[in-house]
Amino acid sequence: MTRKWLKYKPYLHNADCQMHTMYTDGKSMPEAYFKQAEANGIEFIVFSEHIRKVPTYDFLKFKEHVYRAGAQSTVKFAVGAEAKVLNEDGDIDISNELANEAEIILFSFHTPNFPTVASYQKAIRNAALNPWSDVFAHPTCYHNWQNMAMTKEDWAIILNDLATAGVCYEFNKKYPLPNENEIAALNEIRNLQFVFGSDAHESGNLLTQNEIDAFRKLLK
Ligand SMILES: [Zn+2]
Fold it and tell me: Rounded to an integer, what distance in angstroms lies between the CA atom of residue 128 and that of residue 61?
């Protein structure tokens, strides 16, 4: 199967792949994100709106809105969705209908259902194998939140599973930077695509060129 993100690969070196609008818990409308991306010299942005199997808003209206706003801008874009991982089987919280509509799908961990490193790793592996998945969003969130100690080897397994599945790893501005174990594993993995995301909830938080450079410098 072909992952949807591959279509956007040429732009990912200068892109912001995670942001949220007023359709969910953000404070800015799509128009403001396009303006800010132009000001910051960002080539490509992903609207990664929170989604559930039963959404709290009309995703198709949201998608239309972004396309309307994007038609006025030089910035390239995709209308994606961020869905939480529901279980160790890697099911994610999005309907097949909306997964078809979303142009990039980020999976993330927002519920404390994975008590051990082994269960977390299994959930990541299966979520990555989920045919809808494109990006492991904010990978430094869950283990820090849950105070889960993870070794470089634990991370090597996860990164290898992402690379094998053809799913991207996100460097995310809102959560802690990867620690030294994570950086060491990140620098050894091959064939893993990295993306950068602000996780902005208002347009002023979009990534700047300096912030993208700082993420890049974490890798050798
Ligand atoms: Zn998230």
Answer: 28
Q: Which domain holds residue 93?
A: 14-217
Instruction: Give how many domains the chain has, as a whole number.
Output: 1
For residue 113, give both structure tokens.
Answer: 């259902």
Strands 76-84 and 44-50, how do they pair?
Answer: parallel
The C-alpha angle 175, 73, 10, rounded to 5 degrees, equals 60
CA 217 – CA 220 distance, rounded (Å): 7
- Ligand 1 centre from 74 Cα, in Å? 27
* Sites in the chain below the pLDDT cut of 70: 1
Could you tell me the two tokens for 213? Answer: 């450079």
pLDDT tens, 110-149? 999 999 999 999 999 999 999 999 999 999 999 999 999 9
The alpha carbon of 188 and the centre of ligand 1 are apart by a number of angstroms equal to: 26
Within a domain: residue 7? no
Residue 8 falls inside a structural domain: no
In the prediction, which pLDDT does 220 show? 84
Which pLDDT belongs to residue 210? 98
CA of 82 to the centre of ligand 1 (A): 7
Residue 137 CA to residue 155 CA, distance in Å, equals 15
Residue 87, domain CATH? 3.20.20.140
175 CA distance to ligand 1 centroid (A)? 10
Provide the whole-model pTM. Answer: 0.97
